[in-house]
UniProtKB/TrEMBL annotation:
The protein, known as: Acyl-CoA dehydrogenase family protein
Family: Belongs to the acyl-CoA dehydrogenase family.
Oxidoreductase found in the keyword field: yes
Cofactors that this protein relies on: FAD
Location of the Acyl-CoA dehydrogenase/oxidase C-terminal domain: 244-390
UniProt KW keywords: FAD, Flavoprotein, Oxidoreductase, Transit peptide
Acyl-CoA dehydrogenase/oxidase N-terminal domain: residues covered: 25-137
Source lineage: Bacteria, Bacillati, Actinomycetota, Actinomycetes, Kitasatosporales
Residues annotated as domain Acyl-CoA oxidase/dehydrogenase middle: 141-231
Keyword Chloroplast part of the UniProt annotation: no
Domain of life assignment: Bacteria
Amino acid sequence: MSSKSAKLPPFDPADPLGIDDLLEPEDLAIRDTVRGWAADRVLPYIAGWYEKGELPGIRELARELGGIGALGMSLDGYGCAGASAVQYGLACLELEAADSGIRSLVSVQGSLAMYAIHRYGSEEQKQQWLPRMASGEVIGCFGLTEPDHGSDPASMRTYAKRDGSDWVLNGRKMWITNGSVAGVAVVWAQTDEGIRGFAVPTDVPGFSAPEIKHKWSLRASVTSELVLDDVRLPADAVLPEATGLRGPLSCLSHARYGIVWGAMGAARSCFEAAVDYAKSREQFGRPIGGFQLTQAKLADMAVELHKGILLAHHLGRRMDAGRLRPEQVSFGKLNNVREAIGICRTARTILGANGISLEYPVMRHATNLESVLTYEGTVEMHQLVLGKALTGIDAFR
């Protein structure tokens, strides 16, 4: 039978572009596993967690995520799943469709703390930390941002000084996901040799991680300050393969890739809520989904949602081929988070007053994405990364 006479597949409103056709059976199996876990362990409780500003049972959740291979899943060896970049991205999408805080837990664990040790650590450090982090037995955090230095990490004030064969660290880090529940903190500090990374056990004297309260975003997530007050570490605590900003920036690029996918999960959740509401909510004697203005909103939301997923998929294939550049990650993060926020806000208009209720996911995702918009690089920083790549002119200073 010729292709012209072949019967077309039916239109799938959940996958209007047929993106699932690009996925292998193993990709779909991983996606379905993570989606099922989130549906069982997060969605029934997330509104209450968010309202209370807590993530109870985070250690148990971490062990469960380790059990399904979601922690450090794109890393090889040491108990990690060795999944593809696309598979990791699909997991991030499903986790953030539940809540950005859950995806942040996994991203910081795998793409920041574990990736830093896996990429820049010694074999002894890898053996010490990675298997237990992959299983969720040990939670990790990543200390780069400081109270006065976010977009300009080269100016960080945290300092590590040699004292005999030891290192002594002093400083503060801010807005650190997982900080107060972490067993190990990857901390970046100035030294006489340049910026270095350290694997810091959180039970050492002088280390504390007070939790940050009164957040209106990422409320179902543990966010902390890290305080290092004469923290003494042995010589083998330093990550031997990382000197300068190249180390922490490469970790951030890996984490940003997960955000490219994750933001589309939050957008999908809001879009699905808007479609369901539009088909059931009646005004003027008919469902509001039958009015042209509502259908125009839904169409525009669907276009941006699935364009964003296609972009994420493309970047994932490039990462799997070893061809993904940091500028391309900035492209994806800039576009997808910005469009996801737009989708959430449009969904809120369709739900009207119900859009602000925690009975629906829309406002929770919208407020979460306000954090996602500026962490791992603000909009302006990613615009300047692309601007420099396009013109060859550095406009950062």
